[in-house]
Design brief:
By secondary structure, the chain is α+β, with helices and mostly antiparallel strands. It folds into two domains: 154 residues, Ribosomal Protein S5, domain 2 (2-Layer Sandwich); 129 residues, GHMP kinase, C-terminal domain (Alpha-Beta Plaits), CATH 3.30.70.890. Helix content is 38%, strand content 25%.
């Protein structure tokens, strides 16, 4: 039986949020949309900001996910044309790779006629991605803290967010490669620094529930991961400082960067967004972006 078009929608995500390095992922209502249509050969057509990606077809995370699903099913996948769109470009800390892998695994399972259950799908997405936070947010939606267990698996613990929490993403006109972002991280830290990091990570959970400004600002302040990466990102450190001056509750890198995550309350969203857009225009002209978002509870899903 011939296959008709298929479409999958996957939420983007912000991860780390300061001290939640490789653990915390928040799904947001900015979506990666992927449409598959039968064709003579596999191809990827990117639309909107996703056109910035220069990955070859075989390196695209969606294609990698489809091929992994095919391998697990032991069945070939029919060739098709993939059309990919999102309101944000890749390499800005919004989990585009994790979302793409999840989209590919979902599509691949449907195309093979052997869809993975959610537990297997999540395990494969994490293995392909290399760390859990964006893959978990993309597949499950919501907010989770992932903990690696002794058997090599993970526990994914739901995290409560204040209902008024809203997010702004400030995206520079340049990406930051995840590999390069990891290369600048320290190989060792002092005992005092490790103790402070643990304190901040614990406080982050309470801060996301309460949105107390002094607690949230302290909890997202991070010298282990964020400060080394800021040295790679021209203008971003000062932009974080400006966000606080403009009334943000918290500001830090989104994921590995280069984008900045700004945390605020719903009533303050519009005024803060306006000020950030003006600053971005002065910094980068029309090349920068400011996107508003809210936490997203629904995970990846096949639309049809």
């Amino acid at each position: 039986m011939a296959l008709g078009p298929l479409q999958v929608r996957v939420p983007a995500s912000t991860s780390n949020v300061g001290t939640g390095f490789d653990a915390l992922g928040i799904a947001v209502n900015l979506f990666l949309d992927v449409r598959w249509e039968p064709a003579d050969a596999t191809s990827v057509q990117r639309q909107g900001p996703m056109q910035e990606s220069l990955l070859a077809v075989g390196q695209d995370p969606i294609v990698r996910g489809i091929r992994r699903a095919s391998m697990l099913a032991g069945r070939p996948v029919p060739p098709g044309r993939l059309t990919v769109s999102a309101p944000f470009p890749p390499g800005r800390g919004l989990g585009a790779s994790g979302a793409g892998l999840v989209a590919g695994l979902l599509l691949g399972g449907r195309l093979c006629g052997r869809e993975l259950d959610r537990a297997d799908l999540l395990r494969e997405a994490i293995e392909l991605e290399g760390n859990p936070e964006n893959a978990v947010a993309a597949l499950l939606g919501g907010t989770h803290w992932s903990l690696k267990l002794a058997d090599g698996g993970y526990a994914h613990l739901p995290v409560e967010l204040h209902r008024e929490l809203r997010l702004l993403f400030v995206l520079p006109p340049y990406p930051l490669d995840t590999r390069r972002a990891r290369e600048v991280l320290p190989s060792s830290v002092s005992f005092a620094h490790a103790a402070l990091q643990a304190q901040r990570a614990g406080a982050l959970m309470a801060a996301l529930r309460s949105l107390k400004p002094e607690l949230l600002r302290a909890a997202v302040t991070d010298a282990l991961v964020v400060e080394p990466r800021l040295k790679l990102l021209t203008g971003v450190g000062k932009l974080i400082d400006f966000a606080y001056e403009a009334g943000a509750l918290g500001a830090t890198l989104s994921g590995a960067g280069s984008g900045v995550l700004v945390l605020t309350r719903r009533p303050d969203l519009e005024a803060l967004e306006t000020r950030l857009k003006r600053r971005v225009e002065r910094l980068w002209g029309e090349s920068g972006m400011v996107l508003r978002a809210a936490p997203e509870e629904k995970g990846a899903r096949l639309v049809r």
